[in-house]
Structure formats: structure tokens, C-alpha cells
Design a protein that fits this description.
The complex is a heterodimer of chains A (about 350) and B (about 325). Chain A has eleven helices and twelve strands. With about 350 residues, chain A is α/β, with parallel strands linked by helices. Chain B has one domain: ABC transporter involved in vitamin B12 uptake, BtuC (Orthogonal Bundle). The termini of chain B are far apart. The chains are: A alpha/beta (about 350), B mainly alpha (about 325).
Chain lengths: ~350, ~325
């Protein structure tokens, strides 16, 4: 029902924008709709199912570096494909590039229409594989360019945007104190999120302590790092990647608020997760699928933003967030969408 | 919202690290971090002293870790979880012993096979039985146990010594208690002498009436049981399980056996060194002493130091002469 509501909101927003451009609606109305959409929306409006394009005719394969239900990077993609009604063939847990390359090539050889290479590290392999299969479309992320390949799409989240919003909330809750950040590897959307988060905290007078563990999957390191932050007296914790379940556990054990990204991390810390920046890859995937069905197999890069609904801030109803802080978060979202706030 | 009453340290300077509270906290973290490495390495030490190399330690840890995690998830009993971890390790020990001792399979290859099996099967079980990573109740510290908690609470409050010695969970104390136990087993018991004999010269041991097969079989069981226990310790301390939770701890444990020259106390020293370097690196990064830009280099420190130690020690130490060599009377 939530998925339907989101798509109905998107459809309603699109319709509203059309009307606004024709009749000159006020900018304030559009901004509040965008904020509502970017923050998960309260509207019960339903999107007509017929408005959601049917991509079931495409055979789609997904190759990803971590587990499909990691409550992080890979799960966000799986959830997005589910929202689109697509049932992909999945090879997950392929962090080793050679294994992933074999899987990508295998799917292309088996005749898949679309192969999603969900990992920045797969780029080199794609450069070798994609030219061998000109009739197959490869979708690669996180990345900002298609390497000049005509059958490769690229996608990238502007993770600093949601990071900034999380940072505003965290900094407000901490009242000038420090927030601990557990980063995995200093690259890709992880570093963007961390930078945005730090900027958000600093914008409300707080500070962050950032440690990169050097691993996306080392839960023990993430746990140890979070514990070090706690020992230093931080007022909240956040982190990126599937290893952050360890850091979230430390937050729970120490009664500290937790801020998530990539997927909704409430399962990790039910009572203490304040908000999560959730990737809705389906926003850009649907555009790519339509282009593929129309015959364009690649050559364009897409970005997930708060504005286009690719990034959604999901707030945990179980956490009693001060309405003033919530309002500040909504203000931050509006400012980012309007281009008034620099998030990194 | 609850918040901590203490203020975070201000400023980034080395002096922040050398405060008593930070030093004690870092050492305490190092001790806990070393536990899975220590347990796995002690078990592997016993196995290797009998002449059997087990590169599947990591896989056994994963299976033991999942077993312990799932047991606690379903029953909320940590004792039961630990028992399951041990039992899984024992079962894998039987499998590995049959393959290497009775079938004379090449130990390196069969060990890798055990690792791959453990990696895949633990993940399969996790996907089928659990799915999304669900936190469990973490392993309680001694002062949190209902039976003995009241005795340890005042001890934890002692300055410096309290957090360092009395603020750990049961498995941490068990791991360090197993160091003298392993030493005693290897050096003071007849069975330990047999283990060393079959590891140095199985033909001679056999001629003296020592059953090489049985001795190695039991040594492998002990080793794998401790690997299962190491996995249980990891999963229960982290209070979670997910794909490849160990992230190579088992392989580092094998390296620590060489680092420790197949002696339990030096294996413990190696595990502690690894824990101290890791904990210090992380604490220095959290205090800003290591700048963010150097985080990748800093992440290599524990592994680099281990390799350096191995290189320095390799010339001086000779391992069991019959290590990796199957025994046959014919």
C-alpha cells in the first residue's frame, strides 16, 4: 500500500506540475508537495495502477556485492525493482569483482535484456563486457558516467542531500554535541553521505567525529568503531553500508539515536532509529526501462535526488521527534530542493 | 531522548589518547576484539601441533557463529547458543578429520573446501531461516549476570583495573583461561605429548604404540570445537549475524599460530597485539589523531604488523615437522 501511495503521489505531483506550468501555480505549493514526497508523504492519495508502466516484458538480472536483504545497499535495489513489479534474476554477495564479472557476462550470454551491475567496482569489467553484447543494456551504479558506452546507463545517488538532512536532525538533537560517524570505505555514495551529514550537523552548531573502517562488510570493525565513538562521548551515531548493523547495535545498547541511509534501518534499531535516507532507485530505473523499451540501450547518467523522489527521508514513527526538529528537517529538504542549501 | 552526560573530548591531539580513561578503554576494547582470534588460533595450534593444517577455520567459525546466533534468536539463551556453537564445531571437526585423517586428502585443499562450504552454507541457512539481519540480546558482562552480577559490580568501579579486568563477558574470560589450559594439555599430559609426537614424527610415534589416526582425530575435534566457539563468541558479542560475518578472522587466526610459534602463550600475545593495534588505530581515528585522509593506510596497520612479525619470526621458529603430511603405515 505504501508503494502504491508513493507512486500515486508521484503521479499526482507530475499532474500538478503540468497544471502549474499551464496555469501558474504558486512556487510554495509545489515546494510543499516536493517536501511531502521527499519525506515519505502523509497523503492517502492513491496512484492509479494503470499509470505505473509495465516493464514485465524485460528480462532483468541483478548482480550486487552484498546480500539481497542487507538492510542497506543491495536491499535498496531489490526493493526498488519490487516496487516496479520486476522480478529479476539475482546474483548477490559478489563483492569479488571477478565473480561479479562472470555473473554479468553470464546473464548477457543467457539473453537478458537488462543487466544491472549494482556496484562501483564493476565498472572495469563492464568496459570489457558491454561491447561484446551490443543488444543488451547494462545499468551500472553507483557511477556518474557511462564510460562512453552506448549500451550502458549509469546511476548515482546524491547521498549528501539526505545526509545533510540527517545531520540537521542529529545536530539538533545533540544540542551542540558531537555525533559519531562510522564510514566504510572513503568512496562513492558513502563518502558523499558522510560529507553531507557532517555539513548538516555543523549547520546547526554541532560537530562530527568520522572514522572510516576500510571495509563495507566488517561488522566487528564497525562495532568497535562505534564503541570508540561512544567512549568519546558522542550524542548519536550514523553510518553507511551493510556492516553498520554492528554500529546500530552499539547505538541501541547505549540508548543513542541512530540515523540510517540506503535503506530504512529500523529493523536494526527499532526504538532509536530517528530517520533513514532511503534510495528509491525505481525513480531512475523506470526512466531507463522506458528508454530501453523504446530502443535506447544506454548513454545517459541519472541521479537520485530529493527533488526527483529518488531519495526519500523516512522517519520512524516509534521515535518521539520534537516537532521543531522535524520542521527543521523539512525546511532543510525544501532548501535542498530549491537549491538554496549546499550539502557538501 | 537519552543522551550521555559526559562531554566528548575537545580538540584533536595525541594527549587526548594518553589520558587514563582513553587508554583503559582502548585496552579493554582490544581484549574483547582479540577473543575470536584467540579462540580460533588456540584450537588451530592444537590441530597443527598434531600435524594437521586446517585452512577451513573461517568456515567453521561462520557455521558455529550462525548456530549460536540462531539458537539465541529462538531461545534467548546464551548458554544454549554457546553450546550450539561448540556442537557445530565438533561436527565439522568430525567431517574434517574423516577427510584428512582417514581419506588422506590434501589438507590445504580440503581446508579451503571446508571454508567455502562454511561460507556458503551459513549464508544459505541465514537466508532461509532469518533473512534480514535481526539483532539479538548481546552477551551480558559479568556484572550483568543475575547469578554473580552483584559480586562484580563493585569490582567494575575500581579505577583502571575495574574496566580492564572485570568488565567483560564470560567468553572473554573463558578464552584467556583456555591459554594455560592449552599449554597444560600440550606440555603436561600424556595426550599432549602424543599430539606433539605425531606432529613431529608420526612414524616414530606409531612404532611406539601411539595411534596417529586417533590422536590427530581428537586434536582436530578440539581445534574445530574451538573454532565453533570462536564463531559463537563473535556472533554473540556483536549480537548479530550476516553474510561472511567473520570477514577473514579464521585466516588471520591461522597466521597467528605461526606468529605464536605454535605456543599458546605466544599465540595469545599475537592475538592481543592484533587487537591492540586495531583498537588503537580506531581510537586514534575517532580522536582525529590519524587524519581522515590517512584512513586507508591506517586500516592496513594490523595486517602489516602481523606480516612483519611473521617475517621476523619465520627464520627462528620451526613448525611441527610433519605438518600437512598425511600418515600411512604403508
Amino acid at each position: 500500500m505504501k508503494t502504491k501511495n508513493l507512486f500515486k503521489l508521484l503521479g499526482a505531483l507530475f499532474a500538478l506540475i503540468l497544471v502549474a506550468s499551464a496555469c501558474g501555480s504558486s512556487a510554495d505549493d509545489l515546494a510543499s508537495d516536493a517536501v511531502e514526497e521527499a519525506t515519505g508523504g502523509d497523503s492517502e492519495e492513491a496512484m492509479d495502477d494503470e499509470a505505473m508502466a509495465d516493464h514485465t516484458g524485460l528480462t532483468v538480472a541483478l548482480v550486487a556485492p552484498s546480500a539481497s536483504d542487507d538492510v542497506a545497499f543491495t536491499q535498496s535495489m531489490v526493493d526498488s525493482l519490487e516496487r516496479l513489479g520486476v522480478e529479476p534474476q539475482v546474483t548477490d554477495g559478489t563483492f569479488v569483482v571477478e565473480e561479479a564479472a562472470a555473473a554479468i557476462r553470464g546473464y548477457a550470454e543467457d539473453g537478458a535484456d537488462v543487466v544491472i551491475a549494482h556496484g562501483t567496482q564493476y565498472g572495469g569489467s563492464l568496459a570489457e563486457i558491454a561491447p561484446d553484447f551490443p543488444e543488451t543494456s547494462f545499468i551500472w551504479g553507483t557511477a556518474t558516467d557511462t564510460q562512453g558506452l552506448s549500451n550502458v546507463f549509469a546511476y548515482n545517488p546524491a547521498a549528501d542531500q539526505g545526509g545533510f538532512v540527517n545531520g540537521v536532525i542529529a545536530g539538533s538533537l545533540a544540542g551542540g554535541g558531537s555525533i559519531g560517524v562510522v564510514g566504510p570505505v572513503e568512496a562513492g555514495d558513502a563518502v558523499a553521505y558522510v560529507n553531507g551529514f557532517s555539513a548538516g550537523v555543523e549547520s546547526v552548531g554541532g560537530s562530527t567525529s568520522v572514522v572510516y573502517t576500510g571495509s563495507f562488510g566488517d561488522v566487528a570493525l564497525a562495532t568497535t568503531t562505534a564503541q570508540a565513538h561512544v567512549d568519546n562521548g558522542v550524542q548519536g551515531l550514523t553510518g553507511s553500508s551493510q556492516a553498520m548493523v554492528g554500529a546500530a547495535n552499539i547505538a541501541t545498547a547505549n540508548d543513542l539515536p541512530w540515523f540510517g541511509t540506503q535503506s530504512n534501518t529500523e529493523p536494526w534499531s527499532a526504538d532509536l532509529t530517528v530517520a533513514s535516507q532511503v534510495y528509491h532507485w525505481d525513480v531512475v530505473l523506470s526512466q531507463m526501462f522506458e528508454m530501453i523499451e523504446a530502443g535506447t540501450l544506454g548513454g545517459e547518467a541519472f541521479e537520485l535526488t530529493l527533488e526527483n523522489g529518488g531519495l526519500v527521508m523516512e522517519f520512524n514513527d516509534g521515535f518521539a521527534l520534537d516537532p521543531e526538529i522535524r520542521a527543521a528537517a523539512d525546511e532543510a529538504v525544501a532548501g535542498i530542493i530549491a537549491g538554496d542549501i549546499a550539502t557538501n | 531522548m537519552a543522551s550521555l552526560s559526559s562531554s566528548p573530548p575537545t580538540g584533536f591531539s595525541v594527549s587526548n589518547f594518553f589520558t587514563v580513561s582513553v587508554l583503559v578503554g582502548t585496552l579493554s576494547t582490544a581484549v574483547r576484539f582479540a577473543v575470536p582470534y584467540l579462540l580460533a588460533a588456540l584450537g588451530e595450534t592444537i590441530g597443527q601441533r598434531s600435524g594437521v593444517l586446517n585452512l577451513g577455520v573461517d568456515g567453521v567459525m561462520l557455521l558455529g557463529g550462525f548456530g549460536a546466533y540462531y539458537a539465541v534468536l529462538e531461545t534467548d539463551s546464551h548458554l544454549f547458543g554457546i553450546a550450539v556453537g561448540l556442537a557445530v564445531g565438533l561436527f565439522m571437526g568430525v567431517v574434517y578429520a574423516c577427510v584428512t585423517v582417514f581419506l588422506d586428502a590434501e589438507q590445504g585443499i580440503s581446508g579451503i573446501g571446508i571454508f567455502l562450504f562454511g561460507l556458503g552454507f551459513s549464508d544459505l541457512l541465514f537466508q532461509e531461516l532469518v533473512g534480514t539481519p535481526l539483532p539479538i540480546r548481546p552477551l551480558p558482562r559479568l556484572d550483568q549476570l543475575s547469578a554473580v552480577g552483584a559480586w562484580f559490580e563493585p569490582l567494575v568501579d575500581i579505577d583502571v583495573i575495574g574496566p580492564l579486568l572485570f568488565d567483560h563477558d564470560l567468553l572473554t574470560y573463558l578464552a584467556f583461561a583456555l591459554v594455560p589450559a592449552a599449554w597444560w594439555l600440550l606440555t603436561k599430559t600424556t595426550f599432549g605429548m602424543n599430539i606433539r609426537a605425531v606432529g613431529e614424527n608420526p612414524q616414530a610415534a606409531d612404532s611406539l604404540g601411539v595411534s596417529v589416526a586417533r590422536t590427530r582425530f581428537i586434536a582436530i575435534l578440539i581445534g574445530n570445537a574451538m573454532a565453533g566457539l570462536a564463531g559463537a563468541a563473535l556472533a554473540l558479542q556483536l549480537a548479530i549475524f550476516q553474510h561472511n560475518l567473520t570477514n577473514g578472522i579464521g585466516f588471520i587466526a591461522v597466521a597467528l599460530v605461526y606468529f605464536g610459534a605454535w605456543r599458546p602463550r605466544w599465540v595469545m600475545a599475537g592475538a592481543l597485539l592484533y587487537g591492540i593495534v586495531t583498537a588503537t588505530r580506531i581510537r586514534w581515528q575517532s580522536l582525529g589523531i590519524i587524519p581522515q585522509g590517512a584512513s586507508d593506510v591506517a586500516a592496513m596497520a594490523p595486517a602489516l604488523i602481523t606480516i612483519l612479525a611473521l617475517v621476523l619470526l619465520a627464520r627462528r621458529v620451526r613448525g611441527p615437522a610433519a605438518l600437512t603430511r598425511p600418515f600411512s603405515r604403508h
